[in-house]
Amino acid sequence: MINDLKKDGESRMKKSIEALEAGFAKVRTGRAHPSMLNGIMVSYYGSDVPLNQVANVGLDDARTLVVQPFERSMTSTIDKAIRESDMGLNPISADVIRVPLPALTEETRRNMQKLARGEAENAKVAIRNIRRDILGDVKDLLKEKEISEDEERRANDEIQKLTDKYVADVDKMLAAKEAELIQV
């Protein structure tokens, strides 16, 4: 029973780390990467769909994204969706859409660091909430006399070690992202 709870907790904590990676992908650094545009929705025949379902997104160089629509008629719609996103990008349309990334100013870098710290803090809170849930389940098992007090203490220690490991992972990821943001 305790092992099942630990496995469940670990899988949920891994999902928190994956969510943090996805959140960090949206935080813009000085370099271009195709996943930056993942959150942009494009109107396609009356319904909103993710950009990557109506176009290929690739790199032209370190500071320029290239968006190749699957249908030429979608070029202006995709251009408009990129412009209206809250990313401050100004695409250039031709056969393909080129999206040059403006250089990050010091103020922009600080704002991006704040966003990254916020994402990391949210991941830590999620991990701690998972720990709280599992410890509550362990206490319930103790109340129902399905485990002994020694087993409960051992489970608490193991769950705390697991939590510490994932919180340390979040800290490492944040440090790497901040180092990436500082690079000019």
From TrEMBL:
GO terms for molecular function: ribosomal large subunit binding. Residues 138-165 form a coiled coil. InterPro entries: Ribosome_recyc_fac (IPR002661), Ribosome_recyc_fac_dom (IPR023584), RRF_sf (IPR036191). Keywords: Coiled coil, Cytoplasm, Protein biosynthesis. Its main location: cytoplasm. It comes from the Bacteria. The keyword Transcription regulation does not apply. The keyword Transmembrane helix does not apply. One of its GO terms (biological process) is cytoplasmic translational termination. Residues 21-181 form the Ribosome recycling factor domain. It is found in: Cytoplasm. GO terms for cellular component: cytosol. Gene3D superfamilies: 3.30.1360.40, Ribosome-recycling factor (1.10.132.20). It holds the Pfam family RRF. PANTHER family: MITOCHONDRIAL RIBOSOME RECYCLING FACTOR PSEUDO 1, RIBOSOME RECYCLING FACTOR. Responsible for the release of ribosomes from messenger RNA at the termination of protein biosynthesis. May increase the efficiency of translation by recycling ribosomes from one round of translation to another. Belongs to the RRF family. This is Ribosome-recycling factor. It comes from Alkanindiges hydrocarboniclasticus.
